[in-house]
Amino acid sequence: MLFLLSAFTNGAPQQTPEPPIAKVIPKITELHGEKLLDPYAWLREKANPETIEYLKAENAYTEAMTAHLKGFEESLYKEMLARIKETDMSVPTKRGEYYYYTRTEAGKQYPYFCRKYRSMDAHEEMLLDENALAEGKAYLDVGLIQVSDDHNLLAYSVDETGYRQYKLYFKDLRTGEVLKDEVGFVVSFEWTSDNRTFFYTVEDEAKRAYRLYRRRLGDESGELVYEEPDALYSVYVSRSHDRQFIFLNIKSKTTSEVRFVKSETPKGDFQRIHPREAEHKYSVEHRGGVFYILSNKNAKNFRLLTAPVSNPVEENWKELVAHRASVLIEDVEVFSEHLVLSVRENGLVQFEVLSFATGETKRIGFPEPTYAAYSASNPEFETTNFRYNYQSLVSPPSVYEYDMKTGESRLLKQQEVLGGYDASEYQSERIWATAPDGVKVPISLVYKKGFQRDGNAPLLLYGYGSYGISINATFSSARLSLLNRGVAFAIAHVRGGSELGEAWHDDGKMMNKKNTFTDFIACAEHLFKEKYTSPSRLAIQGASAGGLLIGAVLNLRPDICHFAHLAVPFVDVVNTMLDESLPLTVGEFLEWGNPKVKAEYDYIKSYCPYTNLARKNYPNMLVTTSLNDSQVGYWEPAKYTAKLRALKTDNNKLLFKINMDAGHSGASGRYDYLKELAFEYCVMLSMLGIEK
Questions:
Q1: 40, 55 in Cβ contact below 8 A?
Q2: Is position 252 annotated as part of the catalytic site?
Q3: DSSP 126-161
Q4: Which of 357, 403, 569, 678 has an alpha carbon within 20 to 30 A of 633's alpha carbon?
Q5: pTM
């Protein structure tokens, strides 16, 4: 046996549980004249029964250490569940003569995908019953779900393990029959205008989307249209909003290329709009014989250009919306009479609506100091209505419809929070910390009114800071279980995201990655200085690349907090980025660097959480993961926990919990997910001295 479990004797738990101690089996990798020692590399052997035994032993230890909290955990789950309207329906979306929507039923883990013909008073047609698909399965996730132009066929993809490996199926909506056509390893998909032909991309063994196929229903196999040989690039298929063109999008982290073919002639050859150039990212939409090109060439935060479909070479590009140094254009949505730009200014999203007829631009602004806004489902091209989602740390998710002619917004639905929720009882703020290099870093903050800024209040600080992903201030009814117990919640919008533009991302990646960590520490220090909390009352949290953030912060400043939660954490950066067979590795050389390059190796090694664990005190910690995670292998947090147990010099708690049936996002069912969240909240609150 490759570990020692001293918590159990003859199957019975002792009074004081002891954690499993993983056996050390050194693996040495020679690189740049150094010998890299990995004492727990054996935990990557998923098929090894000893590995599974060790993981189960860690679960058993965590179970024993939290057994006294079961009542509290259950009460948290019940109060979270009591805020949710279990039987509910989404706002119907009109497409053609049908209204499409999803609905949920009390007691059912998954949604139903439905539609009605011409009127919401009509008979309901069940397109897909996800609960039936999930029957007898520990995990289920429906990826894409697309109806053909004539509304007769449904394409949907399913992952049954959590590894994000989707299989594509087809259903005839006239008969209810699931067709024999099946396609494995599908990443993206689009129907064409003939309602029989479709394009799709598939992934390789390293989960890189690398091939585009064309196929007709009934064919034995697809026709290979394009294969991308460069492992830095992935390929995705999309369709223009007016449904006239199919786009082949070829992307790396820094460069892109787009090719197109008419949807009505899917057997045609794809034409290239603009060849790939280093550091040039662009995307394309279409309207009336004109391509709308969102490009960052000579425009760090992007500008919008037009080009004729007949000859879209760069010489024919014309600027429609200029680059602005303080405004990041994140997306463009083109309608028959208007276009909508999703822009981010001062870290906050707003929508800019341009009228083609008048050239006038209007902005949809929002009243709260920090919030989240997203484009909603807008499948219709010929419309003057634009739907968007809005929420904040205190305002529940809401769907609005904006009249692009009159400039008026109308609320269609706000998520109902049961139990008498009153938003006026809570306060949100946006404050700014100062990083060591003088850069101002935004913090979004929420607490229940009556909160005392005396340094004694508990606070949860969350961070991410990678891939240019901006963390928006979203609502969570479950989070009320923290706020109502006097815990404040804050988001550190650290560099590595794109909250303050593309440069914000650049300043937190590659050889600037450490800014992400020092920004987070600066945010915590600012919260201490302004007496929102203190180190003994602070909990910190990050997931995935955010787990890397937390792991690096703990190595730099283990005294910064009382408790830390690392969820599916990317903590073994050196070893993972050395293994090009793993999902994501090669494509992310442009985010983290390639350790086979000496300078990049030295920099990664200097902050890698697993590499830099040391013999010193660490705070109380919870590490969570899932066995079938394709994005961050379960062995990273398992190895991290094992090494930390061997090194840490304190008596603080270190708990590790692994879901043996799920992937990167945890449990797939909505009730199971809520139970996982209740456990995590329960552990954190108990560490902060709150157990009821």
A1: no
A2: no
A3: EEEEHHHHHTT-S--EEEEEEE-TTS-EEEEEEESS
A4: 678
A5: 0.96
